[in-house]
Amino acid sequence: MQALAELKEQIRQALPDLDVVIGWQQGFDALHTRPLFIRSEEDIDKLVVNEFCVVNPASYLRELRGGKKVGLVLKGCDSRSVIELLQEDLLKEEDLTIFGFGCNGILNHTKLQARFGELGFIQSIENDGANVTVVVGDNKETVPFTELCADKCLTCVYPNTLQCSHFVGEESTKKPESEKNKALEEFEKLSLEERFAFWQDQMRRCIRCYACRNACPMCVCKDHCIANSREPKWLSEEVDVQNNFMFQLIHVMHLTGRCVECGECERACPMDIPIMLLRRKMAGVIRDVFAYNAGTNAEDTPPLMCFKVEEPTIEERH
Amino acid sequence: MACKFISNEDITLWLEALAKDHVVFVPVDDCGSVTFRPLAEGRKPVLDRVPVRSPKEAVFPQNETLLLYKYEKDLEDPEHSTVRIKETLPKERAVVFGTRPCGARGMTVFDRVFDNERIRDPYYATRRENTLFITLACNKVESTCFCHEVGSGPADTAGSDVLLTPVQGGYTAEAVTERGGQMLEASVFADGGNKCAEAEEVKKATREMLGEAHDYSDAPEKLLAVFDDDEFWEEQAAGCISCGACTYLCPTCYCFNITDEATGTTGKRLRTWDTCMSFQYTLEGSGHNPRSTKAKRLKNRVNHKFSYYPDTYEKNIACCGCGRCIKSCPASVDIRAIVKAAQARGAKKESK
Ligand code: SF4
Ligand code: SF4
Ligand code: SF4
Ligand code: SF4
Ligand code: SF4
After folding, report:
1. pLDDT, tens digit, for every residue of A249-297?
2. Residue A222 DSSP label
3. Which positions ≥6 away from B72 have C-beta within 8 Å?
4. Same domain for B290 and B307?
5. Domain-located, residue B71
6. Which structural domain range is residue B284 located in?
7. SUPFAM superfamilies in the record, alphabetically (chain B) (predicted)?
């Protein structure tokens, strides 16, 4: 990132008034970053911003609620989760300081793995924005960025951090590759039976680790989630297709109208289950029915938190 | 150890022969990720990737029915009902094919806990007795591999019955246990000949790729020294999202929950995996939770593996170094780095 030094300087100036600033730092290898919690000056130097900054820092806000002054370095998509949380009155604007930048997209580990084998075998990787050059053993391959980036980046219309306190560097001019998600379009062509068979096969693989839930910036129940409440007990401990699917449907329905499509749930899934298909579908329904796009404008009221006599998109039968 | 040879083509024949009287678990491409599934028509073993799920589930499945029960009303005395119980000990014989040495070593961690002089878990012990492990030595290593640091290595035989090593055109096969030796009597095996020297070279080269091993031997006491250092644990756990993926994929994590899953008057007593990373794990009936924060939970996971377990079981670390917890962690939490940080922190304190 060109303006990294400037970003660090902004954080340095803001830090005395903040409890923590959440960003990213280098992880255990060149392909991984991990969240960075900046509490002191020395921590600032660890900050990195690159195409491996996949984690959504807003996912940690839930734990930091209650008067803590929090700074966040956010990609455009991440910033939508903060706006949605503000709309829902789950955060206070005065507690937040947001550092924004123009994002050019992130790489997707699952796609890299499908293409090059285990990530841990990749020796080096270079990205010039348009192409990614990967070295594995004696092979060197160059692949277009769009084939390896996160799906959300292909349809991204908010590459620049929305509603931030500080913006660093130039705005991103990244344009969406397509309007709708390709995988969802393909999926919708299937018959109901085929869709059901697809999910049966996928849900069989779920290990109910709840990484999808815990990575979600909008999942606010977590420790008290109905999936593992014991009194009353809604879901069996049995990890089978039926219960796994039930859990997924609960997750999707509880997030409908709130989900900002950040993709963290699917990214976090160790079994690579394409659960974004469900989330994107429902987000589309909410856009169609309520003309509402979650987390894009702090002045909006989420459709499930208000009552209107007439919805602009629903024709009333009088 | 006698060394034999089996060609790539004959592997399939061998597995098919084993499948006649065993459930043969093989690593397969399962909608993109590699998991162990029973050998079946059209399922080709994937041997160049490390399975995302661990081989433990052949012996310690995520769901295990311990018994079936049924309530029956006493017709003479409707106030009372009797319960009938049916034991469901596992019977099937299984072979796990293509696990890595780290994964197979995980079974030795289980053995000490579930089958010792004091305790014998009949479900575990029966499956363990009925399951054979055919392990595949590694010829390349990943950035998350650290088997060599926890007393293992890319050609470790602990927990295995047979060790295969990839060589030109196939694999050399060495028996580790007597039962492994019997498996190698099958006609698909030829004498190893000069392949055996090649296999030794592969093992040596892979071990070299891992480089120098960090020494964890003083970890138990160093971890204890930082036990009450909340700042340390909060810092280490800051990125963790408390999901438990690390423990479910771990070949050495063995915590479980037991619940009665009822449908009307019948039901089953089920054992399912549990995880110390979850809030519910230590949630008491009163509502009090002694491990109320993710930092306390992560502290338990790390300490259990690198401190409590080695203290209880002759210095054996309850980690096989496979790196699954690191590789699949949504937040890239690195258990190696946490233990090292604890060791370094201890040292810092001492020097004061
Ligand atoms: S979706 Fe947009 S903002 Fe988010 S990572 Fe992709 S390009 Fe960046
Ligand atoms: S992260 Fe994946 S495996 Fe874990 S509970 Fe969610 S869908 Fe299932
Ligand atoms: S459900 Fe998934 S995509 Fe939607 S907000 Fe949560 S993590 Fe993001
Ligand atoms: S840690 Fe890596 S090199 Fe070692 S046995 Fe496991 S897969 Fe092989
Ligand atoms: S260490 Fe990683 S995988 Fe384990 S609970 Fe924390 S976030 Fe989940």
Report:
1. 999 999 999 999 999 999 999 999 999 999 999 999 999 989 999 999 9
2. G
3. B81, B82, B83, B84, B265
4. yes
5. no
6. 214-265+276-352
7. alpha-helical ferredoxin
Q: What's the structural domain count of chain B? A: 2
Is the distance from CB of B13 to CB of B186 less than 8 angstroms?
Answer: no
- Which of B172, B193, B213 marks a domain boundary? B213
Residues of A in contact with B36 (CB under 8 A): none
Q: What is the pLDDT along chain B (352 residues), one digit of tens a residue?
A: 689 999 999 999 999 999 999 999 999 999 999 999 999 988 899 999 999 999 999 999 999 999 999 999 888 888 888 999 999 999 999 999 999 999 999 999 999 999 999 999 999 999 999 999 999 999 999 999 999 999 999 999 999 999 999 999 999 999 999 999 999 999 999 999 999 999 999 999 999 999 999 999 999 999 999 999 999 999 999 999 999 999 999 999 999 999 999 988 999 999 999 999 999 999 998 989 999 999 999 999 999 999 999 999 999 999 999 999 999 999 999 999 999 999 999 666 555 4
Are A250 and A208 in contact by the 8 Å Cβ rule? The answer is no
- Picking from B197, B213, B229, the residue at the C-terminal end of a domain is B213
Interface of A with B in 237-296 (CB under 8 A): 237-240, 264, 267-268, 270-273
Same domain, B257 and B305: yes
Smallest CA–CA distance, residue B180 to chain A, in Å, is 30
Statement to judge: residues B207 and B218 lie in one domain: no
B164/B102 same-domain check: yes
Q: CB neighbours (10 Å) of residue A6?
A: 14
Distance CA B299, CA B317 (A): 16
| DSSP state at residue B306 | I
Residues B25 and B127 placed together within one structural domain of the fold: yes
Task: Say if B280 falls within a structural domain.
Answer: yes
B236/B306 same-domain check: yes
Mutate which: B145, B236, B241, vs A, most A CBs within 10 A = B241
Same domain, B200 and B324: no
Partner residue facing A223 (CB), from B49, B249, B279: B279
Write the DSSP string, B52-77. Answer: SS-GGGGTS-SEEEEEEEEEEE-SS-
Contacts of A119 in chain B (CB under 8 A): 142-143, 327
Q: Is-cis flag, bond preceding A217, omega within 30? A: no
Mutation for testing the A interface, residue in B143, B282, B288 having most A CBs under 10 Å: B143
In a domain, B294, yes or no: yes
pTM above 0.90, yes or no: yes
Residue B67 lies in a domain: no
ipTM comes to: 0.95
Amino acid making up residue A71: G
What is the predicted pLDDT for the residue at B114?
97
**Quick one: B121 and B234 in the same domain?**
no
Q: Tell me if B302 CB under 6 Å of ligand 4.
A: no
